[in-house]
């Protein structure tokens, strides 16, 4: 049985009528949720947080990121993460559902922003001291609006959220690490492919299946992925399989044989061989090596 809790926005402030948005200053948020923020968990919403003080480590899907003043993190639904702090953090955090944003901006999608564009873009950004102060003030305005009951509250919240994302996307793009320089058609196809992989990766691992479902040839799908991410179709499928393998190995009570079967491999030896090829460890070695 999987033991990674999936958190919903309503769990954070059940008495607040807005069920698709949440905001708080980071100190208050962490104090209220001190029982679980340091344990691996998932969300079914988008999360954005900025640190103005504090230090520590943020682990997101087995990748470790340092926490320091100026750090911003972006999480998409389904990612596993947790925090470890060496000193008391300060800053702001907000969550929202996909519908919250896209219902207010009918012609825009969250994946237009580079940090949500693809799973291969880093979920972190480091701002200068000056930019941290400027962006933090935007977060503060958003937080104040959330905690007041004024006319057109949702409209203002969505507008402020969009402004924050636009400013962060500009800084993110300036770092030169963003992958988002493909044509609109390639971008849409990549996004559709990643969503499809998220749905079918446990059963379907062939490029032919995904290409057929997208009504394109396997060769063209591979061309799109290579042009946008410098990877192959099979690379992306297997990266998703290996990520889920790691999650289940570390955060579930399933046996390694059960995990192999859950991921569509009836032959455990074959699954173990693929896992070692991709990670350098057998599933058992990885389980023992992870704290």
UniProtKB/TrEMBL annotation:
Presence of keyword Translocase: no
SMART domains: HTH_ARAC (SM00342)
HTH araC/xylS-type domain span: 191-289
GO molecular function: DNA-binding transcription factor activity; sequence-specific DNA binding
Domain of life: Bacteria
This protein's UniProt keywords: DNA-binding, Transcription, Transcription regulation
PANTHER family hit by this protein: ARAC-FAMILY TRANSCRIPTIONAL REGULATOR (PTHR43280), TRANSCRIPTIONAL REGULATORY PROTEIN (PTHR43280:SF32)
The name this protein goes by in its record: Helix-turn-helix domain-containing protein
Organism per entry: Psychroserpens burtonensis
